[in-house]
Amino acid sequence: MNPVQAVVLGVVEGLTEFLPVSSTGHLTVTEQLLGLKVDDKAITAFTAVIQVGAILATFLYFRADIVRLVRGFVRGVVSAEGRADPDWRFAWCVIVGSIPIGILGLAFKSVIEGPLRSVAVVAVALIAWSAVMWYAERRPAQDRGESALTVRDGAVIGLVQCAALVPGVSRSGATISAGLLRGIDRVEATRLSFFLAIPALTAAGLLELGKSLGGGVGVGPTVIGTVIAFVVAYATIAWLLRFVAHHRISLFIPYRVAAGVGILVLLATGVIS
After folding, report:
1. What total of structural domains would you count in the chain?
2. How many DSSP H helices and E strands does the chain contain?
């Protein structure tokens, strides 16, 4: 991989990681268009590692909230009064919600990195999950804020997050949709989606770090891609939180469907394989 390819993939990762359009799907297609082998273990590892750049952007953007949640969790451990704090419940939502994707991600790692790393799968998933997003936005009541979150919310959203192991579904698309179906307001569902990304993507990136650095991609491209992903993701986070405050996530559906159809056309014409 050369530096230009690393920059392009870093931009794609930063733009799409938190938007409900599937970063893995976009990276898979972009890698094909750049002439890279998407089934190469080093390329798969690189894709996971540069996600850490996006997660570092989340740490920076939400640093005050993260400190508050950690303090709330510690207070809840040591006192009954602390366990009545919404921060205690939010922290448990993140913990419980992160367990399912960790278990299934490891159990089906070979399938995720093998048969599912297919642009045909990406195309179908982009189109199919759009129906779920459309349905979720039409739930009549989405008025529950952070103070109303429960551990059950975290468990349900965490289970739905596992659907994002299929490239094209979108991790944020899955978790935000699940939050809306639970009656959580759009902004809070999006915030919870960001926090659920931290354990999942950090673990995935650290597990693949050695393969990316030593398996053919190299230190230079890996660092470049990660830094670019960090910068672009930070801007994307700020934009998305403002966007969902006033707009439905279903506005991303036309793009998802168009992208899915476009990929199928590229496959049919032999531009990508």
Report:
1. 1
2. 12, 0
Tokens representing 23?
């970063």
Per DSSP, the three-state class of 184 is strand
Residue with tokens 């890698």: 31
Domain that holds residue 243: 3-268
The tokens for 187 are: 């902004």
Q: Is residue 273 part of a domain?
A: no
**Residue 102 buriedness (CB in 10 A; 0-12 / 13-18 / 19+):** middle
Q: How would you class 264 by CB atoms within 10 Å of its CB: exposed for 0-12, middle for 13-18, buried for 19 or more?
A: middle
88: tokens are 């205690």
pLDDT tens-place values along the chain, 273 residues long? 899 999 999 999 999 989 999 888 899 889 888 988 877 878 888 888 888 898 899 999 999 999 999 998 999 998 888 888 888 989 999 999 999 998 998 888 888 877 887 889 999 999 999 999 999 988 767 778 888 888 999 999 999 999 988 989 998 999 999 999 999 998 899 989 989 988 887 877 777 666 556 556 788 898 999 999 999 999 999 999 899 888 888 999 999 999 999 999 989 998 887
Q: Which of 77, 91, 105 is nearest to 162 (CA)?
A: 105
Tracing tokens 């009656």 back to the chain, one arrives at 183
Task: Say how far apart CA 270 and CA 273 lie, in whole Å.
Answer: 6
pTM over 0.90: no
Q: Which of these, 90, 83, 84, lies nearest to 65 by C-alpha position?
A: 90
Cross-strand pairs, 144? 184
Residue 34 lies in a domain: yes
As given in the structure block, the two tokens for residue 108 are: 């089906």
